[in-house]
Please model this.
Amino acid sequence: MKDLSEQGKCDLVLSQFLKGLGMGAIMTKSKGVVGQLTVFRTAKSFKEEGKTKRAPSTRKVTLRTPPMVKMIWEKVQQDLRWSMRALAEVEGVSASTMRRLCRDNLGLTPYKKQHWQVLSKATKAKQLKQGCSLLKIL
Model:
């Protein structure tokens, strides 16, 4: 019962609402399955509009499409000195979109990775021995 879709939750709330239960009673009856916000939104939209289906999203289509990713990858491979801001301006997208594209899709980072020296077991043991001898002196 916990794995209901959003429409399933709305249908559950609506069926209980049509039986004459109040919003508080619906919430206590479906505790852990349907949240308070879903109950209130569903009941309100049914009272006002007579339906529970929500309008489709007005979110813009993503700009991080495979052709865009490929084009940015080719530009970066030709010249590694591109800044995120300059790339975004040339492509006509926001700087945050370009940073997200480079980080998530291309695996690029805005910094150079540091390489550390790997110590062998013998070197570690020698450093430990020297550290202990220094502590004895103090």
